[in-house]
Amino acid sequence: MSAGEAWHLLADSYSRWSADRASRIAAALSFSITFAAAPLLIVGMTIAGWVLEGESVRAAVIGEVRAVLGLEAAEFVAAVLTGTSEAIGRSGALPPALALLVSFFGASNVVGALRAALNDIWGVRRHPRSGLVHSLLGTIGERLFYLATALSIGLLIIVSLALNTGLAAAIRYSVYFLPANEWALSVGNYLLSFLITTAVFAVMFKIIPDVVMAWKDALVGAAVTSILFTFGQFAISLYLARSSAASVYGAAGSIVVILLWVYYSMQVFLYGAEFTQVYSDKRGAGIRPSSNAYAVRYDRLPRLDAEVAESDSQDSPAQV
Predict the structure, then answer these.
(1) Which 3 state secondary structure label does DSSP give 243?
(2) Domain contains 230
(3) Is residue 162 part of a domain?
(4) Rounded to an integer, what distance in angstroms lies between the CA atom of residue 13 and that of residue 301?
(5) In 178-257, at which residue ranges do the beta strands (DSSP E only) sit?
(6) Angle at 305 between CA 303 and CA 310, to 5 degrees
């Protein structure tokens, strides 16, 4: 692929991203994800703690938040996780079970919102269910799928953070014994993070929406999304370090910073979805609806131009 072709793919992806009003979708997703994150992290860290040391998993999560969002946000996340764990520990058997059910319901809502967003962006819609029993069984199966997807992705992310933390510690200690290998270990750390992030995005693109697409197309789109996500992490970390975004909002500054980061992440994710479709349509196997969905693709850019023209005509003063 030439540089010109790559540029056209990126430009077409941006046009579709803008026409689909992805910033609005990202705002709704960021709100849902932020307030479902704490209980999901508790569940994910508990599961990861069965394989890895519990404190190392917690330290990895807090360390990553501090590296990206700063000390105040990391302290806020640590306090939320501690408070949630202590509240569950002080309760009897029923309240934790209810809290777990609420967490699972929140997780399923987040994945459901991601599915709806990807379906809208990729121009597919689910067939309506007919009959009470069929509808009920379909809803239960759908919720279980959402929950399994959320827990799998969350667990993969937490384990990757723990592995990155361990590799970073190995880099620090290797300086004293094998100074020449420090550079290689650092590259390996970044490469591991990139590969895991790409895998997470590829799985999300492949299994969450109601479409059929080739794994190759999903991996290419996920790799581009992962690159943008990595650069964006650096950019937003630099912005937060040089701005007073947290201090302006006082006690609510930490949650505002987290919301900003999640909002940016969702924008990158949705742009990556647009790129995946453009790439698949032009150079891949294409994206088509699954057996339980149908295509609703339409030409979005003329629709957007017509809406803008109509809005301008309504806002302009009446001619006398």
Answers:
(1) coil
(2) yes
(3) yes
(4) 12
(5) 211-212
(6) 95
Counted domains in the chain = 1
Q: What is the pLDDT of residue 278?
A: 92
Predicted confidence at residue 161, as pLDDT, reads 64
Q: Which residues on adjacent β-strands are paired with residue 295?
A: 124
Instruction: Give the model confidence (pLDDT) of 23-57 as tens digits.
Output: 888 888 888 777 777 666 666 666 666 666 656 66
CA gap 109, 117 in Å, rounded: 12
Task: Label the pairing between strands 288-289 and 211-212.
Answer: antiparallel
Ranges under pLDDT 50 in the chain = 93-94, 299, 301-309, 311-312, 316-320
Q: Is residue 310 part of a domain?
A: no
pLDDT at 215: 92
Residues of the domain holding 185: 13-301
Helices (H) and strands (E) in the chain, counts: 11, 4
Q: What is the pLDDT of residue 220?
A: 94
Helix, strand, coil share of the chain (percent; to 5): 85, 5, 15
309 is a domain residue: no
Q: Which amino acid is at 24?
A: R
Reported as half-sphere exposure (CB side, CA atoms, 13 A), residue 222 has a value of 21
